[in-house]
């Protein structure tokens, strides 16, 4: 059984930083893609970033967020700097076979989410 477990969310002031982690068990994603999505209250889930052999970012986070992974421990990270109140959302990690994608419907595996709140 594949499980993805996020951690690292919390409350931070605007301009601050957080690092999210996503630990996978049950399969490796060494040659496949993992990604981060987020969902704010009353809004649809949106793409944040994804990684396989390359990285892919939403325009709204480019230059502020960095996605990375450690294949040895099957963990993915999202370093979030210069956080803004509009970054407030539940952040989900996800995994899929094949290449990176910004389409959440292509992702098979999902974590339970971690709350990120950015105060102004």
What does this structure look like?
With 120 residues, the protein is mainly beta. 0% of the residues lie in helices and 51% in strands. The strands form 2 sheets. Strands 2, 4, 5, 6, 9, 10 and 11 form a 7-stranded mixed sheet that branches. Strands 1-3-8-7 form a 4-stranded antiparallel sheet, with no helix packed on it. β5 and β6 form a beta hairpin. The chain is globular.
Number of strand elements? 11
- Strand proportion, as a percent range, falls in over 45%
User: Averaging pLDDT over every residue, what do you get?
Assistant: 96
Main structural class: mainly beta
**What's the number of helices?**
0
Give the CA-CA distance, first to last residue.
40 Å
Low-confidence stretches: none
- Helical amount among residues, as a percent range? under 10%
Instruction: Summarize the main sheet.
Output: 7 strands, mixed
Rg for CA atoms: 13 Å
Order of helices and strands: EEEEEEEEEEE
Shape: globular
């Amino acid at each position: 059984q594949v499980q993805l477990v996020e951690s690292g969310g919390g409350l931070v002031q605007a301009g601050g930083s957080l690092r999210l982690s996503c630990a996978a068990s049950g399969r490796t994603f060494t040659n496949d893609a993992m990604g981060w999505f987020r969902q704010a209250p009353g809004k649809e889930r949106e793409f944040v970033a994804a990684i396989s052999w390359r990285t892919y970012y939403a325009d709204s986070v480019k230059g502020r967020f960095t996605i990375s992974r450690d294949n040895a421990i099957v963990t993915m990270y999202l370093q979030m700097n210069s956080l803004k109140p509009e970054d407030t959302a539940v952040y989900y990690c996800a995994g899929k076979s094949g290449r990176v994608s910004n389409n959440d419907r292509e992702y098979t595996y999902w974590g339970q989410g971690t709350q990120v709140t950015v105060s102004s």
